[in-house]
Amino acid sequence: MGVRVQTADFDLSREVKQLIGGRTDVGAIVTFTGTVRDEAKGQPITAMALEHYPGMTEAELERVEADARQRWPLQATLIIHRYGELKPGDNIVLVVTASAHRQAAFEAAEFLMDYLKTRAPFWKKETPAEGESHWVDARESDDAAAERWKS
Amino acid sequence: MTKILYFAWVREKVGKAEETLALPANVTTVAELVAWLVARGPEYAEAFAKPEIVRAAIDKSHVKISASVRGAREIAFFPPVSGG
Prior knowledge:
The structure holds two protein chains of two kinds. Chain A is 34% helix and 36% strand. By secondary structure, chain A is of the alpha+beta class. Chain A has one domain: Alpha-Beta Complex (Aldehyde Oxidoreductase, domain 3). In chain A, the strands form two sheets. In chain A, strands 3, 4, 6, 8 and 9 form a five-stranded antiparallel β-sheet that branches. In chain A, strands 1-5-7-2 form a four-stranded mixed β-sheet, with helices on both faces. In chain A, β8 and β9 form a beta hairpin. In chain A, α2 runs antiparallel to α3 (102-119). The radius of gyration of chain A is 16 Å and the shape is globular. Chain B has a single domain (2-78), classed as Beta-grasp domain (Ubiquitin-like (UB roll), Roll), CATH 3.10.20. Chain B has helices at 8-14, 30-38, 42-47, and strands at 2-6, 18-21, 55-58, 61-63, 74-78. A five-stranded mixed β-sheet of chain B has the order 2-1-5-3-4. Chain A binds chain B through residues 34, 50-53, 55-56, 59-60, 81, 92-93, 113, 116-125, 135-139, 142, and chain B through 5, 7-9, 57, 60-62, 76, 78-84.
């Protein structure tokens, strides 16, 4: 259980080790890492700035995490989301889910990412190799991805 | 007094990250607050030029534009979120 919003990078294996510890009842651990791409709509980008709403971000991530834990039998969950100045290749987000069996861990990880993208108050601003930096529009495909969990 | 926060391009267009305002009694919903802000100056008019795009939160929870602002301590306006 845990939500962290930070500027610092994270280390996947260290986070998993810390989260699971010496537990032997866990049968499946799924991790998702989102990273900064070096292009957007065919244009090379050199940097990405992430702004967020301190306080609300943590509250939304905790709500999303609580939803997941109600839907699936999860033994542990972790969400880390970075903000501030990032470069292509940098980590943005880490989601970890642990369960006795893989299906719950896979599904919950996907659910957490889908909901996080439509609910957590983050905004991305990209700096292209040429021209002015611009805010990234929310994607309709993200809304559709979150919507499918409502059925 | 109510704290009003702005994020991302809404913040850039309004020209400030936050302000504390005394809302008049006839401003009872988020939609009415937007209309009242727009009348305050061209920077607000530009930020809310497409009001259907701007999202709102009251006391750190997402709300619809029809939500009541009565008793709100903190109201935030921002573009659709794009994290992850």
